[in-house]
Design brief:
By secondary structure, this protein is an alpha+beta fold. The protein contains 20 helices and 20 strands. Strand 18 and strand 19 form a beta hairpin. Bound molecules: 6-diazenyl-5-OXO-L-norleucine (DON).
Length: about 575
């Protein structure tokens, strides 16, 4: 396979073993370094706290928690929980996510991995029929599509290990909003219409999210008393309240009655993981992004490694877009070919992220002609919702979090009596090599289903850091998440405003389908012609995509700038100085 051959050999540690024989002097330096660590991490403090999230109620609740003495991590718990209530089509207690944290006091950076896992009874071919063909919608609708949720375990973990306030206090705004209700807006109506069949198929979901089986009218108030009780139980009992006892029994029973395969053991066994974020460098900026099982960091750093080999600023527009597309194509090819849950499969991460590999890929790019994806293929292809928020507190603690239940309204299934809407994240596995998921992504062996395994994600919460400042960004958008973060990052590096990062027109290439996806109005006629002449296929989409929430702490001017994507209905707010 060309993709395999293209990889350079794994670099081995020094054959003479000299690395291990560190002289005593080095230990002395190491101890000194440890002693100086707190000083080294005196990062200064931002003049204001800031939050950008996809819903005004969540941003406001997060700010209230900061004002009540909480830190960015408490605010992250609050914002996540409120979004679970007011953005049920995007994320929730029945889903998962990644929370990228930076603690100012010691500079610790960690990714809290609350990604869903495949149930223990899951099998590799569980979404295929007896002839080995995918069963339509089996990994998308109903409880068979649901992975074991991780959000509640992650929130309890963040609160306990990083927060200042008790979980009970951080969950209060969400409990209040679940009881009081929120008003249906246009976006809610569009999402509910899109998933109406799945929602109608679940009696509890229909009661919670529809009105007499129809999309509720604008302004209709969605009250979720079962969800309020579930949140209250979690507030009182912590993660145990969700993963054991009555709630766990109710969820398992509902899932099994409707064709799912969860067991109580699955819930008890769920573990949140602390992962070391991936770190790379691009034009003087330190880039910190999601670790596996998100493909985000790997794909982003691979793209940046290739981009660093040319001066993209001095390129003509068509050259720049062409080059970016070729870079995207190659990195997404590697995503499809190599990536999955590193706890289950060996992934040649070092090689994929090496400068030497970037040079090899770079050498295969022609500036005159598009490389057909098929010529790179490692296998034969067959045939909003999610959410992000960014937080900075006045101490300089940072959170970038992207959370999901996958498709709008997840699997559409609510476990009776719990108010918990289950995800359909199982569709992020490669249900058959080369078969595309709902985002058109293909995958291979590395992302095949296995009991307890985490499905590969594209969610890419990201920090940038340099002497100039600190950026926090991310977005929903399925397979397009990583290219949106790339485009946002390039804007940041070029010194544009946060408003520009989140609003710029977007384009995307993901290897397969072999086409440049373009937001309406993003490319001029002339640019389209120039790209077509180089052999690119263009797919101009009807609707724009993404919902980026970003902020920037400009260290030089000591200013904080925060912005919410104009495509969504979010809110970016700042505290008083
Ligand atoms: O984890 C992932 O990559 C997907 N489940 C994210 C889905 C998503 O962003 C949908 N949003 N539009």
């Amino acid at each position: 396979m060309p993709s395999m051959n293209a990889l350079p050999p794994t670099s081995k540690s020094s054959p003479d073993g000299s690395v291990k024989k560190a002289p005593v002097l080095h230990w002395g330096f190491f101890v000194l370094w440890l002693l100086l660590l707190p000083v080294a991490h005196a990062e200064g403090q931002p003049p204001a706290a800031a939050i950008a999230s996809a819903h005004p109620a969540a941003s406001k609740a997060g700010m209230e928690i900061l004002q009540a003495g909480g830190n960015a991590f408490d605010a992250a718990v609050t914002v996540s929980a409120v979004l679970a209530v007011v953005e049920p089509y995007s994320s929730g207690l029945g889903g998962g996510g990644f929370w990228l944290l930076h603690r100012a006091s010691d500079g610790k950076e960690v990714m809290i991995d609350g990604r869903e896992t495949a149930p223990l009874a899951a099998t590799r071919d569980m979404y295929l029929d007896s002839r080995g063909q995918p069963v339509a919608r089996a990994s998308i609708d109903g409880p068979l599509a649901a992975g074991i949720p991780g959000t509640v375990a992650a929130l309890a973990h963040i609160s306990k290990h990083y927060g200042r306030l008790p979980l009970k206090q951080s969950l209060l705004p969400a409990i209040r909003l679940a009881k009081e209700g929120f008003a249906v807006n246009e976006h809610y109506r569009r999402m509910a219409a899109f998933r109406i069949d799945a929602l109608r198929a679940s009696k509890s979901a229909a009661q919670q999210f529809l009105k007499a089986g129809e999309v509720p009218p604008l302004g209709h108030i969605i009250r979720q008393n079962d969800l309020a009780n579930t949140l209250q139980t979690i507030a009182e009992q912590g993660r145990q309240g969700f993963y054991a006892g009555k709630l766990a029994q109710q969820m398992v029973q509902a899932v099994r009655t409707h064709g799912g395969i969860w067991s109580e053991k699955d819930l008890l066994a769920y573990q949140v993981r602390e992962r070391k974020p991936l770190v790379g460098h691009y034009r003087g900026w330190r880039v910190v992004s999601a670790a596996l099982p998100s493909s985000g960091g790997v794909v982003l750093l691979e793209m940046l490694n290739m981009l660093a080999l040319r001066d993209i600023d001095s390129m003509a527009e068509a050259d720049r877009i062409h080059y970016l597309v070729e870079v995207m194509r190659r990195a997404y090819r590697d995503r499809a070919r190599w990536l999955g849950d590193a706890d289950f499969v060996d992934i040649p991460l070092k090689r994929l992220l090496s400068k030497e590999y970037a040079r090899q890929l770079f050498a295969s790019i022609s500036m005159q002609k598009a490389t057909p994806s098929q010529s790179l293929a490692g296998f034969k292809p067959a045939g909003r919702d999610t959410t992000h928020f960014s937080i900075l507190d006045k101490q300089g603690n940072r959170v970038a979090a992207t959370l999901s239940i996958n498709y709008p309204f997840g699997s559409g299934f609510v476990a009776a009596g719990t108010g918990v809407l289950l995800n359909d994240e199982m569709d992020d596995f490669s249900i058959k090599p080369g078969v595309a998921n709902v985002y058109g992504l293909v995958g291979a062996e590395a992302n095949a289903i296995e009991p307890g395994k985490r499905m590969l994600s594209s969610m890419s919460p990201t920090f940038l850091d340099s002497e100039h400042g600190v950026a926090i960004l991310g977005t929903p958008g399925g397979s397009r998440i990583i290219t949106m973060v790339l485009l946002g990052l390039l804007q940041a590096v070029e010194g544009n405003t946060v408003g520009q990062w989140v609003s710029q027109p977007r384009f995307h290439h993901q290897y397969l389908p072999d086409e440049i996806q373009v937001e309406p109005g993003a490319f001029s006629e002339k640019l389209q012609q120039e790209l077509k002449q180089r052999g690119h296929r263009l797919s101009i989409k009807e609707r724009p995509w993404g919902n980026m929430q970003a902020l920037y702490w400009n260290r030089k001017d000591n200013e904080v700038e925060v912005a919410s994507d104009p495509r969504g209905g979010g809110l970016a707010i700042k505290s008083a100085k």
